[in-house]
Amino acid sequence: MKQTVLTVENIIKRFPGTIALKGVSFELYAQEILALAGENGAGKSTLMKILSGIYSHKEYEGKITLNGKECQFSGTAMAENAGIAMIYQELNMELDLSIAENIVLGKYPRTKWGSIDWKQVHIEAEKALSQVGLKLDTNTIVRNLNPSMQQLVSIARALYRKPQVLILDEPTSVLTEGEAKKLMQIICKLRDDGLSCIYISHKLDEIFELCDRTVVFRDGEKISEHRKADGYDSSKLIEDMIGRRLMAMYPSRVEHIGKEVLRIEHFQVPHPFAYGKNMIEDVSFSLRKGEILGLAGLVGAGRSELVSAIFGAMPRNTGRIFLEDKEIQIREPYEAIRYGFGFLSEDRKKNGYIWSMNIRENMTLVNLRSMVKKLFVDAKQEDIVAKEYFRRLEVKAPGLDTMITSLSGGNQQKVILAKWLMSNIRILMLDEPTRGIDVGTKSEIYKLMQELTDNGISIIMISSEMSELLTMCDRIVVLGKGVIQKEFSRGEADEVKLLQAASCT
Q1: pTM of this structure
Q2: Comparing C-alpha atoms, which of 98, 113, 449 is closest to residue 255?
């Protein structure tokens, strides 16, 4: 019989107007990778915040037992000291500190006189990095690392604290497929070395390959449990997650492509961190009415920087923008909005919403000018418009007054989409629109994209998921080394061709 490391018993967590967790119980065994699956808003992240000490033991009901001892955490430090470490979906690194400083942060080795032992700091950092297969100069500033390296450093930081339980929340969301496979190999090695892991992911292929057992959540309850040894059934697992049959993930793509609506000529975009270096050297492409144009490429290819520069959120060295064959000037986001551009950023926490505002305020932010009467916002009109999109996009929340930070990632994404949909956009740029989102919400976003193109809106979509690009896009442009490596029409591309082009081979 397997040794039980962690037991969660009858956890209940209440928020104003809703119950996020309704008596959840499960066990984690020694040297096991346990997946938690479920739609956004199912309660997974709430439970992880309880286990990691973000929510105090006074804020929920139920019992947590670690190695037979009941735990009551009042903060993340207590959880770490007890042996539970968490890797968050949105990396919380100190970007302007070195690798060594990030790894030992809060737990500095000390000399016998009480000062920081910097020699030991770098020794410990190198040991931690070796556990995740990295050999780096520990003096390197974290900001200079790519996202995959930052992710591995964050895991090394957790391992330095010698946890018994490691929680990973969407750890591959910022990684390429190759980087994700490497990370999964590292996680398997950690399990074989004695660590127990809780793995949260919406990518079922990762769960099936990596995880020994999967617990499914829905609406704050544990619905079912699936074991790898019994053979995973993807259809059954998805049905358990969303409470219904998902007949098709992707809608049938019906093309209504018209004349050219946007043309980008000779864009050159400087690197955001490396002075004197360009992220984009020379890129030109066009977009037609009702078309979905995919931007493919490896992490660091400059896809996000390119669309940010088009939107005016990043500077460009050179480049011309033509809207319906007429040259326009966009140097700031407000100018792009005026011309009918919308932009859903890759980092919704940083650039997608305002954390101090509720759902209503975030939805209407871009469109407030149309609701002004006699110098003041018409609150009644604002409420009517927000309610319409709240219902249309099926946002899971008690109401419009709910703070956006209390929503799941998928529902935050819906609120951000609503902001652009109500602003009469002509061109919508989507940067990783389904990252960290469950299969049910993904399907809803795909259907919405189809509806938008049916109505003549043109879409530029960045995605690291090959299947998403191949299924949803009418054309795919592949970026690499600062230029367009290849362009594929619908039906020409496959995963091999896209990877070859992205790798510049």
Answers
A1: 0.64
A2: 449
DSSP assignment string, 365-430: STTGGGGEETTEE-HHHHHHHHHHHHHHTT--SS-TTSBGGGS-HHHHHHHHHHHHHTTT-SEEEE
Dump pLDDT digits (tens) for 271-306. Answer: 887 778 899 999 999 999 999 999 998 767 889 999
CB 223 within 8 A of CB 216: yes
Asked whether 422 and 363 are in contact (CB, 8 A), the reply is yes
Question: pLDDT by residue (tens digit) across 148-169?
Answer: 788 889 889 988 988 999 999 8
Query: What is the C-alpha separation between 17 and 253, in angstroms, rounded?
Result: 39
Buried/exposed code over 248-261 (b: 16+ C-beta within 10 A; e: otherwise): eebeeeeeeeeeeb
- Residue 274 tokens, joined: 């490396």
- Strand residue runs (E) in 150-296: 165-169, 196-200, 213-218, 221-227, 260-270, 278-288, 292-296
- Give the Cα separation of 349 and 417 in Å (integer): 14
- Are 76 and 48 spatial neighbours (Cβ–Cβ below 8 Å)? no
Q: Which of 409, 407, 55 is nearest to 399 (CA)?
A: 407
Using an 8 Å Cβ cutoff, are 221 and 24 in contact?
yes
- Amino acid, single-letter form, for residue 195: L
**Running DSSP on this structure, what letter comes out for residue 271?**
-
C-alpha to C-alpha distance for 91 and 152, rounded to whole angstroms = 10
Helix (DSSP H) and strand (DSSP E) numbers for the chain: 16, 22
pLDDT tens track for 68-105: 999 999 988 899 889 999 888 766 788 889 999 999 98
| DSSP 8-state class, residue 143 | G
Write the CA distances from 160 to 145, 150, 294, 330, integer angstroms.
19, 15, 40, 47
